[in-house]
Amino acid sequence: MAEPGALDAAVRRLALALDALDAAVERRREADRSEERLANQLHVLGVDRTRLAAALDGEAARSRRLEETNREIARRLDTAIASIRSAIGNQD
What we know:
Elements: H1 4-91
């Protein structure tokens, strides 16, 4: 049979190994929680990116419409100015 000192040493080594295993399991759990938090953040960023892309597309379309309207107004103003100049020129 094993000596009491050898048995005590084996029990201590087993206890240390179990403590190390518990610590490793806890580190793994924390890593899993961190990974889950990062995945959630990535999902939120993806949703936000999609929302921002849609808003940007909408604003780009609005900008194009405003540019077209501005060109149409400029064209009409040019026509009106030409008409006024022609009318003033005819009065001379």
